[in-house]
Hints:
Layout: H1 2-20, E1 51-52, E2 55-56, E3 67-73, E4 79-84, E5 88-90, E6 96-104, E7 107-116, H2 118-132, E8 144-148, E9 152-159, E10 164-171, H3 172-180
Amino acid sequence: MKRGKIVNLLMVVFFIGALSGCATPEHKPSTFLPDENAELVSFKPGLEPDGFAGIKWETEISTLPGMMYYRNDPSHGGITFYVREGEPFKLGKGKVRLIQYGFWKGKFYVGMVTTQGLSNWDALKAAVFDQYGKGAHPFINKEEYLWVGENSIGALRYDETSKAGTFYIRSESLKKKMESEK
């Protein structure tokens, strides 16, 4: 049973890497050592999100005022990211960061916040742990934490090389629809 949990956790980690595009030709992925004692962790009881920053999973982009195109990610047939003008994510005493909202086929799929630099990463990590609890820590030698809920998956990671931090929460039910359409 424990081995199955580790395999599931590592599959989630692999998906996270694919979503964030961590393996590019210019950046060879590092070798990470799995923590064999790691177990799946959910969000704090009663706090599994049903969306991100007030937008519920699968909400149609056309129903949301003030969304501005930000970027496109070609994974999964195309995830289009938007930002809302004047809606920053405040990292405690850290810098204000934009929230990126990802839509697949016009439906809300993922919310994401990124940081630059160790002090902003520390502020993001503290804010996320305070909100959702400490996630699973699947690797001994990597700052990465995961939350696996009934319909939401969350990830928080820091890249030592680029000094970039990323936090996101995505819809599991929409992910399953994406996979069924491959």
